[in-house]
């Protein structure tokens, strides 16, 4: 056991016993030697046959290899006919022998000794898992752990079977963080259940800080070598985290978590189609079945629809809140705006009828019946399903996270982003748009809007009064530079790190100038 000090803390670095390492390396070396001999034999046969049929071609190839390698050769008598073949064999043997001497893992360039392995199973939808991955990379760096490529949620309401590599570019993820964290695709076999190993499985405490992970989790790693976090949502605090770790969270979010080439290609195609027709608004209309069922928000639904949503909520035992009074939640601003309410708010904010609106969402509950008023007010409403041919979307269908990734790309690139509910996608898109230069994001104050909507609809407030009030409320809610709101001991109520990662938007001491209240009008 090696003991070393980091920042005044004694960190234990238990290592795998030397015999185990030696045995594993010997096996790898033996396999590589056998592979080299096999390839060498095949190559001799291949070149011999090639010289029988195309001796000039082989000679030209070996001549080009000699030029590329630029190895100075001493003067020798004229070579026998098989020397070109021997050149190829010599070069391949050299490469293979070099490979045998190379270390087993080339993906990590950091300078710490790993204390163990961190395996994580993310839970929730795409954007909740995205934030969790950023947090888990940061925890792995803090504790000097080797991170196993995260597992994605396949058992929640969405039942998406996608793996990490189906959504994110896993090679880019590993390579782009290789100077910070060692990341492997899977645990070594010695730590698998097949070999009798039982890793510690646990959920870390929500909103935990650096001290919790160093004092509570690190000793468990030292004891068990592998810890499996089976829940990862909001397990790292928003605030009071060292600046270098906060910036690592941003680096993972904005640089390392790149979508697969297939998702990016189709996402940017959607952006091009929209931009060719002019500016567009991305409306994150969070009026989907799961949202309404679990929030208990049924305003505007029929009695049959409300009963259906309630049955769905009871069908999931893990959802603790069962009996919910919809109108109470709505009056507190805890419900998403309905499609009808969204139409009125967009009109009050000054968007004209010819505004191009992209609905960044899944299937709207109630379908076209509920979209009627919104479509009447804004005829140029489009979705990915209306912009792309069915065959283009076929590979992504029944994969809700991959479909959400397309909406994410379109929302981040939009001229204006308007979320009707402050869920995970709304918050992460908002943070991305701040990072890209404080692009305009209208952050709706739903509690005040519900009051204004009811007063207007019952005739108490005229349209002009209603419109003026809506605009006044949101003058300083357009995604301008601002500092995160911190509420001690109530992390759920304070501003979310990923919605406003201020540590990554400026360098001290210039942050005071950028994030001061006087700069609240600066948006992209």
Spatial order of strands in the largest sheet: 5-4-3-7-6
Mean pLDDT value? 84
Briefly note the structural class of the backbone.
alpha/beta
Radius of gyration: 29 Å
Largest sheet, in brief, is: 5 strands, parallel
How many beta strands in the DSSP annotation?
Answer: 11
Total number of domains = 2
Shape from CA axes? globular
Annotation field: number of helices: 21
Show unreliable segments.
1-25, 47-107
Measured as a percent range, the helix fraction is 40-55%
Strand content: 5-15%
Secondary structure layout:
Elements: E1 2-6, E2 9-13, H1 18-53, H2 55-69, H3 83-101, E3 117-120, H4 126-142, E4 146-148, H5 164-167, H6 170-176, E5 183-184, E6 200-202, H7 210-224, E7 226-229, H8 243-256, H9 261-276, E8 280-284, H10 289-295, H11 303-314, H12 326-331, H13 339-348, E9 356-359, H14 367-377, E10 381-382, H15 384-387, H16 390-393, H17 400-413, E11 416-419, H18 424-435, H19 446-457, H20 463-473, H21 511-514
Parallel strand pairs: 3-4, 3-7, 4-5, 6-7, 8-9, 8-11, 9-10
Antiparallel strand pairs: 1-2
Helix pairs in contact: 1-2, 1-3, 2-3, 4-8, 9-17, 10-11, 13-14, 17-18, 19-20
């Amino acid at each position: 056991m090696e003991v070393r000090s980091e920042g005044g803390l004694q960190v234990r670095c238990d290592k795998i016993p030397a015999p185990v390492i030696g045995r594993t390396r010997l096996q790898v070396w033996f396999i590589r030697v056998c592979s080299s001999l096999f390839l060498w034999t095949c190559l001799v046969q291949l070149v011999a046959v090639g010289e029988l049929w195309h001796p000039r071609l082989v000679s030209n190839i070996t001549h080009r290899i000699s030029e590329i390698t630029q190895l100075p050769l001493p003067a020798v008598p004229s070579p026998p006919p098989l020397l070109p073949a021997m050149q190829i064999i010599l070069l391949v043997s050299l490469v293979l022998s070099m490979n045998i001497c190379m270390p087993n893992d080339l993906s990590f360039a950091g300078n710490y000794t790993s204390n163990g392995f961190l395996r994580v199973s993310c839970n929730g939808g795409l954007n909740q898992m995205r934030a969790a991955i950023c947090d888990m990379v940061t925890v792995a760096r803090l504790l000097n752990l080797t991170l196993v490529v995260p597992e994605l949620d396949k058992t929640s309401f969405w039942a998406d079977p996608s793996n990490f590599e189906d959504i994110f570019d896993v090679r880019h993820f590993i390579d782009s963080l290789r100077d910070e964290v060692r990341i492997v695709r899977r645990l070594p076999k010695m730590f698998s259940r097949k070999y009798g190993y039982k890793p510690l499985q646990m959920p870390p405490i929500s909103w935990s800080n650096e001290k919790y992970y160093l004092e509570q989790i690190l000793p468990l790693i030292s004891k068990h070598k592998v810890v499996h976090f089976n829940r990862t949502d909001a397990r790292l605090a928003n605030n009071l985290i060292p600046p270098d770790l906060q910036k690592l969270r941003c680096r993972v979010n904005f640089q390392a978590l790149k979508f697969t080439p297939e998702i990016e290609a189709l996402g940017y195609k959607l952006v091009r189609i929209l931009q060719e027709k002019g500016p567009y608004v991305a409306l994150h209309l969070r009026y989907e079945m799961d949202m309404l069922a679990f929030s208990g928000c049924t305003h505007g639904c029929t009695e049959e629809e409300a009963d259906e949503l309630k049955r769905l909520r009871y069908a999931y035992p893990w959802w603790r809140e069962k009996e919910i009074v919809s109108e109470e939640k709505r009056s507190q601003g805890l419900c998403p705006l309905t499609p009808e309410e969204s139409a009125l708010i967009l009109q009050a904010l000054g968007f004209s009828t010819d505004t191009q609106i992209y609905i960044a969402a899944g299937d709207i509950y109630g379908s076209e019946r509920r979209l009627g008023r919104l479509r009447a007010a804004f005829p140029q409403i489009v979705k990915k399903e209306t912009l792309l041919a069915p065959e283009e979307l076929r590979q992504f269908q029944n994969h809700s996270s991959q479909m959400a990734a397309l909406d994410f790309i379109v929302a981040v690139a939009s001229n204006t982003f308007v979320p009707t509910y402050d869920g995970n996608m709304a918050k992460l898109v908002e943070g991305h748009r701040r990072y890209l230069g404080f692009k305009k994001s209208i952050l709706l104050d739903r509690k005040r809007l519900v009051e204004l909507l009811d007063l207007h609809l019952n005739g108490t407030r005229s349209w002009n009064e209603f419109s003026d009030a809506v605009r006044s409320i949101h003058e300083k809610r357009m995604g301008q530079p601002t500092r995160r709101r911190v509420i001690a001991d109530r992390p759920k109520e304070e501003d979310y790190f990923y919605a406003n990662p201020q540590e990554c938007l400026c360098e001290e001491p210039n942050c005071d100038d950028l994030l001061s209240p006087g700069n609240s009008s600066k948006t992209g």
